[in-house]
Amino acid sequence: MEVAHVLTNCLRVIRNAWHFYFAVAYVIKALCGSFCIALLTP
């Protein structure tokens, strides 16, 4: 196996992990935001 091929695969996995992390963080932030708004409204 070539080093460049392995490196490309590693970078792809890391990039996918970052996308996943940001998606999860965005969802949590959205849920927390709506939850806080629900708490603040009478």
What would your notes on this structure say?
- The chain is mainly alpha-helical.
- It contains one helix and no strands.
- The longest helix has 38 residues.
- The radius of gyration is 18 Å and the shape is rod-shaped.
- The model has no long low-confidence stretch (mean pLDDT 80).
Q: What distinguishing features does this structure have?
A:
42 residues; mainly alpha; 1 helix; rod-shaped
In short:
This protein is mainly α and 42 residues long. Helices cover 90% and strands 0% of the residues.
N-to-C order of helices and strands: H
The proportion of residues forming helix, as a percent range, comes to: over 70%
From the alpha-carbon coordinates, what is the Rg to the nearest angstrom? 18 Å
Number of strands: 0
N/C terminus separation: 63 Å
Derived structural class: mainly alpha
Oligomer: single chain
Choose one word for the global shape: rod-shaped
Q: Hey, roughly how much beta strand do the residues contain?
A: under 5%
Distinct helical segment count: 1
**Taking all residues together, what is the mean pLDDT?**
80
Weakly predicted, low-confidence segments: none
Main sheet record: none
